[in-house]
Amino acid sequence: MTQPYFKKIVIFGAGLIGGSFALALRRANAVGEVVGFGRSAETLKQAQQLGIIHRVGVDIATEVGDADLVLLATPVGQMPAIMAQIAPHLGVHTLVTDGGSTKCDVVAVAREILGEKIMQFVPGHPIAGGEKSGAAAARADLYQGKKVVLTPLPENSAESAARVRLAWELCGASISVLTPPQHDEVFAAVSHLPHLLSFVLVHDLAQRDNRDLLLSFAASGFRDFTRIAASSPEMWRDICLANREALLREVKQYADELHTVYQALEKNDAAKLEAIFRLASEVRNNWTKNK
Amino acid sequence: MTQPYFKKIVIFGAGLIGGSFALALRRANAVGEVVGFGRSAETLKQAQQLGIIHRVGVDIATEVGDADLVLLATPVGQMPAIMAQIAPHLGVHTLVTDGGSTKCDVVAVAREILGEKIMQFVPGHPIAGGEKSGAAAARADLYQGKKVVLTPLPENSAESAARVRLAWELCGASISVLTPPQHDEVFAAVSHLPHLLSFVLVHDLAQRDNRDLLLSFAASGFRDFTRIAASSPEMWRDICLANREALLREVKQYADELHTVYQALEKNDAAKLEAIFRLASEVRNNWTKNK
């Protein structure tokens, strides 16, 4: 019998991200044992029943000492505490990766807490998810054909980066490599800004006296535009604050663009409005075709 | 054999909106004959082949004289010219309705062009559609369970308004009644503003040197938020201009809200950000549940 690529993996957070990672690796026969930690005993129990983890971890110190790979799949806000708990006990061959939506802040915290063991931390961000969360939402094919961004650090050995890359590839993902600042700038533009804009629209309508009337006429355009405004308030508060600098630049630039459109509308500038809408429409249609 | 509710209907524009109206009424055995006019001879021919219209109209004067109902299902910009063509020839029992996305401008034009025959015009707006357009996209069930807003005029008789209402109800729609200004304010908020915001986001990204890199990392949140930015530039230019006053108020208010969020982010005000996101998330989730 051949050895699996990873003898033992420890996941912190057995929800959608961590659970799907475990399921995918188990389905690929790429892992011998998955041990789960998390804040909710109930979620962990459910994750075990669903075949996500083999067992619920009890003692972090002993579990991370002989693990091949540790995945931090909790909200970013919980990562510092977990890093502090695992840092003293990480085996010399244990690699750590994460699934956080922001990277500069996670890397800064990791450098501070892991010290020299920062070389064992290869940061990552799987570009997959959905409105649903929790262990019950985890699926072995969540990452199939999806992108995972890795932001390896100068301290990582090529071999360490390759091992983390392999784990995600075994989940079916295709890997992109960016630096942490590149990552955060890209996602400020294509993810964090749209989320913020969507939240702001619904909040704007939600405060009005006639909100029920307005919402009764909202249709499919509104539904899709605001789907992401149904996301977790805590998670998005943390993402926005974690990526504050890049997001402030994005909001500023967007507000300037909006002002330009406002002025065109004020002046009845049909040609300008059409030019703006046309470029947007063309780029958006091409994006779908290239997907 | 019983008579159909409508002996003859004339539609201007046999695309998604007009074509689906005709298909629905034909499926309900509610119309004897559907005659189609439009700018594109090819679309009309296709509409005939698809069973949307019985025949392509040749002479507007003779066709609208004995029609029970005329539907204007063209872009709003084409309606003035059509109204001018039909006005002298409308039969005394011929009712006119439309499917325009804005109502104050259509009503103003109709008052000017139709003169005393304004009493025969019952304005409407079916809240259905999609990215696809054209005769091939028309479906008999497009309006099933959807809202149609009617904005009857003081000049309309109760019977005229009821006849137009009946036509849409036979298509499976549920009818809401608003005044034209109410209609335009509601749709500025829940439809026109989100479209404009979505266009602006894609335009913002489209102008950047690294746009291809950015778009390569855009995922499902971006996809849904920007789906409406793939809409027709000409149509949305016209809608924005037609509903300019209400839309300017909406953009102004949105920009103020965005500035508030910008400031909260600048000040690292976690509580405020979370409160804004939480209200939005709750309202959006409740909206889905009530759908």
Distance between the termini of chain A: 39 Å
Main sheet characteristics of chain A: 5 strands, parallel
Q: Assign an overall shape of chain A.
A: elongated
As a percent range, the share of helical residues of chain A equals 40-55%
Provide a brief overview of the structure.
The structure is a homodimer of 291-residue chains. In chain A, the strands form two sheets. In chain A, strands 3-2-1-4-5 form a five-stranded parallel beta sheet. In chain A, strands 6-7-8 form a three-stranded mixed beta sheet, with helices on one face.
Task: Give your account of this protein's structure.
Chain A has helices spanning 16-27, 41-49, 60-65, 79-86, 104-114, 158-170, 180-206, 211-216, 220-225, 233-242, 244-266, 270-290; strands at 6-12, 31-37, 55-56, 69-72, 95-98, 124-126, 147-150, 174-177. Chain A is α/β, with parallel strands linked by helices and 291 residues long. Chain A has 2 domains: 6-178, NAD(P)-binding Rossmann-like Domain (Rossmann fold), CATH 3.40.50; 183-290, 6-phosphogluconate dehydrogenase C-terminal like domain (6-phosphogluconate dehydrogenase C-terminal fold), CATH 1.10.3660.10. Chain A has a 5-stranded parallel β-sheet with strand order 3-2-1-4-5. A 3-stranded mixed β-sheet of chain A has the order 6-7-8, with helices on one face. The radius of gyration of chain A is 21 Å and the shape is elongated. Chain A starts with 5 loop residues before the first strand and ends with a helix. The model of chain A has no long low-confidence stretch (mean pLDDT 96). Chains A and B meet through helix 7, helix 8, helix 9, helix 10 and helix 11 of A and helix 7, helix 8, helix 9, helix 10 and helix 11 of B.
